[in-house]
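Task: sequence in, structure out. Protein: Polygalacturonase.
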Amino acid sequence: MNQVKLEGPCKGPLELQIQATLKAPSDPNQLKTGEWLTINKLDGFTMSGGGTLDGQGKAAWECKESKKCTKLPNNLSFNSLTNSIIKDITTLDSKSFHVNVNQCKNLTFLHFNVKAPGDSPNTDGIHISRSSSVNVTESTFSTGDDCISIGDQTEQLSITKVTCGPGHGISVGSLGGNPDEKPVVGVIVKNCTFISTDNGVRIKTWPASHPGVVSDIHFEDIMVQNVSNPIFIDQVYCPSGICNKNLPSQVKISNVTIQNIKGTSRTQNAVSLLCSKGAPCEGVEVGDIDITYSGKEGPATSKCENIKPNLKGKQSPNVCSSAGAPTPAPAPAPTRAASSSS
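Result:
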């Protein structure tokens, strides 16, 4: 299938059923501009059917690695959808992002599956920006970049019962790279599982950044299995290495809860809360962390900068402690025998 664009407005609800495997041209040069399948300006839209959208991305990934290709098409692009649902659909081997969500409201992904090799470049599962009331639930992501990435002006996003891996985890950001970015407010990631990912739950902002706001973020009831950086606030995010890390990020992170995260880390540093000295994190609550590391370096540790979190419940490793090891419970005070008068 070549490039297709379905654009409204339409007079009533519309359902697109995909019941087969649709294959994109493998040669990236055959898709000159835009995305592979684009859906715009619809209310009450449904995509369903149990089918697969195969982007046939291998040649494009090789082209990107050789720097012969710059802009590659996403498998799916959803723009200005309202009151819509994407369910029982698989996206396979996209040339770039599997899904880009932009300016949508009340959009649900249910039983949605993303599949690509762990080394496929820039193949984010779902990238969401400038959207509100998006719900991703009961879905699986195996890809070479973020399972779900969250851009600016995202509000009231719910991610529940998602399995991620391989991939780079679920990330708020990266933010601060562009001027006039709007706040990210109201994100919950709950009852999710990460398996052999490069990160677990993450907030990432650029150093020397433009101003921005990240607030009301909740990571709760998370299982991690052999995950690098299971809990990560990274305000010196610079994957290319071409950044001025001496200038702090100006993105303000506040009102974050990190609650009930358990499992195993692939790296000794299991909890990293590296906030900006220019805009220190505020209102961060961390509770009931139980993450172990079995490497030869010793037990799991944590690292914190420019943050004073409110700690609740169990902390293993001991969060924002250089020692990292869990603090043993204090021994009970010895009982004194009552003395008798002579």
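The chain has one helix and 24 strands.
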